[in-house]
Amino acid sequence: MFDTVHFDLKGYLNKEAQIVNQALENYLPKQGQYAKNLGEVMRYSVFPGGKRFRPILTLSTAAALNADPALALPAACAFELVHCFSLVHDDLPCMDNDDFRRGKPTVHKAYGEDTALLAGDALIIEAFNVAAQTNVPNHPEITGAIVRETALAAGHLGMVGGQILDMDAQHHGATKESLLEVHKGKTGALIRGAARAGAIVAGASPKQLEEITEYSEILGLVFQITDDILDAQSDPDPISFPTLFGMEESKRIAQEKTNRALQILEPWGEKALPLAALANYLLVRTV
Fold first, then answer.
1. How far apart are CA 94 and CA 71, in angstroms?
2. pLDDT per residue as tens digits for the range 179-196
3. Is the peptide bond before 236 cis (omega within 30 degrees of 0)?
4. For the chain, does the N or the C end have fewer beta carbons within 10 angstroms?
5. Which residues make Cβ contacts (< 8 Å) with residue 4, sequence separation at least 6?
6. How confident is the model at residue 283 (pLDDT cuts 50, 70, 90)?
């Protein structure tokens, strides 16, 4: 059993986030290499970031499988750029029409809708450029595998597909089954892809890849359930887990799934402790 109680997850997340932020700083071209103010807008979209949960998941998975996490940095940053792109477009008036994110004006409020749209486009394209910089010595095939994993997580089979299902649900309602499909794509696909990317870089066996896939799918589900529970306290959503499953059932599912995630990781040993701590954190987080 993992001793996540005494693991300094906050310190770990801060340290790993600094590594990710420095890598993102290096990967994004300098201002003079962009047309007009595009570089400024892209950086506004990326910095300061949130917890960098997805790229940290990539690095933690690679480390848990005894790989040098530095080899997974391009993949980690690619998934974060996809995530940042999604936030820019989600905030647009044609989608969620949000005015603020992380305490500052959203990109379209700060720079205009047309510039925000193009900055989001630039971020998603740059994500693939960064993913293609994955370089594992003696394994050139891994580069293509990471690019493909990024595409599957971001595209019509993943995040974008989940978003359009969510839009349909907002207009026509949802069932328990359709809600699960929405968040398997919208929320879960990037989390699953980020973890799988770390495993792929580490040369995971088919069994290990299967295990990390199940683990990360659980993380995506619990992430969304706890998000919905937190939102229900201030801004209840009719298309949410507490509404469709009930509050107590939602909490029960989250606990049961987290227990399963920890069970999956047990054979991986102590190097998987950060992954176990992440799973427990998602279950009990308050923000």
1. 38
2. 999 999 999 999 999 999
3. no
4. C
5. 273, 276, 277, 280
6. very high
Q: Would you say residue 31 has pLDDT above 80?
A: no
CA distance 208 to 229: 31
As a whole number, mean pLDDT of residues 246-252 equals: 96
Q: Are 9 and 281 in contact (CB under 8 A)?
A: yes
147/134 Cα distance (integer angstroms)? 9
Radius of gyration of the chain measured on its C-alpha atoms: 18
Among residues 186, 149, 154, which one has the least CA distance to residue 167?
Answer: 186
In the chain, the amino acid numbered 137 is P
Q: What is the pLDDT of residue 42?
A: 94
Q: List the one residue out of 283, 224, 285, 280 whose CA is nearest residue 3.
A: 280
How many Å apart are CA 284 and CA 62, to the nearest integer? Answer: 25
Question: pLDDT value at position 44?
Answer: 95
Token pair in block for residue 256:
């049961």
Beta strands 104-105 and 100-101: pairing type?
A: antiparallel
Q: What confidence category does residue 238 fall into, taking pLDDT thresholds of 50, 70 and 90?
A: confident
Yes or no: say if 87 and 137 are a contact pair by the CB < 8 Å rule. Answer: no
Three-state DSSP state, 163: helix
Residues 6 or more apart whose Cβ sits within 8 Å of residue 265: 2, 64, 211, 215, 272, 275, 276, 279
- Look up residue 181 and give its two tokens: 């499909």
Mean pLDDT for all residues in the chain: 94
Name the β-bridge partners of 105. 100
CA distance 99 to 87: 12
